[in-house]
Amino acid sequence: MESAASTSAALTRNAAQCLPSGALAAKLELAQLEGRQLRIKLGLDPTAPDIHLGHTVVLGKLREFQELGHRVVLIVGDYTARVGDPSGRSESRPALSDEQILANAGSYESQATRILTADPELYELRFNSEWLDMPIADLLALVRTTTVAQLLEREDFASRYKGGVPISILELLYPLMQGYDSVAVAADVEIGGTDQTFNMLLGRDIQRHYGVAEQAVLTMPILSGIDGSAKMSKTAGNEIAIQADRGEIFGRTMRLPDGSMADWFELLAIEQPPEGTSPRDAKEALASALVDRFHGAGSGADAATQFVSQFAEHELPDEIDRFDFVAADGVVHMPSAIAEAFGISRSEARRLLGQGGVKLDGEPLPGEQLDLPAERLDGAVVQIGRRRFKRFGHAL
């Protein structure tokens, strides 16, 4: 049997932080001594119907704990979704209807168990409405555990308060509700993205107030979306849903900037291709592996063939003139770049963008995307009309 310290090191190898220092190893050692499973908690609020690749970073870590014999407690936040997680937000989230929440929650388990094992010895599904629909006396007891000063230590709350942006009492309750989830399920370990660090550590404080052993906290890095910059989310429109068809998974992965590939390979636990592989081939390997993961072995190769066929149908010429663009602070203003590349006016370039008449690697650019990251454009083929192409490259 491996030592608790070596097991902890293996589990935290690609994590951002394990807090407090040594807490996970201590939990693992105690579990060995007592001959019991650890209870590993993850909460997901059903604010959208689909689980995306960003969620799979933490779900994959949960699977590692299951493979060591520990029990995953997946909490579907059907009650906290009524509030909306304010983490990293500069404004309040719009409220969802009960019907939307229930519809979204209904699809979460089937998606999560594509990554987790549903063995009842290793898996437990809970809905936090079980305990958060509480009498007012219990709610008052919960809010007594935390001060306003503690909550305003959170960066997002602090910046909003300083800037005079409203913070609702409901939003202030969210971290307390998430912390009480840890009390209700007696969590030994909580896993989440780095944006959840404050909430998970507050959960330790709330557990202590209720006389429950404090959880260890394991934070995982945030997966960027296909734009290579913002956190992957449905709201940002930069996500890849794990239930998407093979063509969509492959095609959207191929839009990932080259500079983001290393993080995707590491965080999604996909073996990197040999050194010296071209960025294009590396991205195809990444896309194929993701399709194989969610659609079965061999599906990735089929998706790659279909993707190449689609490009052939676009009648790309064998030779495409290169246009060297100049980026300002890593961003390219597309109307100006298109105008210069194709020798048209900026107003014409804006009109083409607005009408969906500009394609990037075969896909129409949304008319509102006037500025794009330089990484996304470097090496991409930009098309206007049926037969006008330029391969964009970053000017040295």
Walk me through this protein's architecture:
By secondary structure, the chain is α/β, with parallel strands linked by helices. Helices cover 43% and strands 14% of the residues. A six-stranded mixed beta sheet has the order 1-6-5-2-3-4, sandwiched between helices. The longest helix is centred in the C-terminal third of the chain and has 17 residues, at 279-295. The model has no long low-confidence stretch (mean pLDDT 88).
* C-alpha-based Rg, rounded: 24 Å
Write down the oligomeric state. single chain
Shape: globular
Separation of termini? Answer: 55 Å
Could you give the count of β-strands? 13
H/E order of the elements? HEHEHEHEHHHHHEHEHHHHEEHHEEEHEE
Total number of distinct structural domains? 3
At CATH level 2, the architecture of the largest domain is 3-Layer(aba) Sandwich
Average pLDDT score:
88
The biggest sheet amounts to: 6 strands, mixed
Strand order of the largest sheet: 1-6-5-2-3-4
CATH fold field value of the largest domain: Rossmann fold
Quick one: CATH class of the largest domain? Answer: Alpha Beta
Strand content: 5-15%
What is the strand and helix layout of this fold?
Elements: H1 4-11, E1 17-19, H2 23-34, E2 39-44, H3 53-67, E3 71-76, H4 98-112, E4 123-127, H5 129-132, H6 136-143, H7 148-151, H8 155-162, H9 169-184, E5 189-193, H10 197-209, E6 216-220, H11 246-253, H12 261-267, H13 279-295, H14 299-313, E7 322-325, E8 331-333, H15 334-342, H16 346-354, E9 358-360, E10 363-364, E11 371-373, H17 374-377, E12 381-384, E13 388-394
Parallel strand pairs: 2-3, 2-5, 3-4, 5-6, 7-13
Antiparallel strand pairs: 1-6, 8-11, 9-10, 9-12, 12-13
Helix pairs in contact: 1-2, 9-10, 11-13, 11-14, 13-14, 15-16
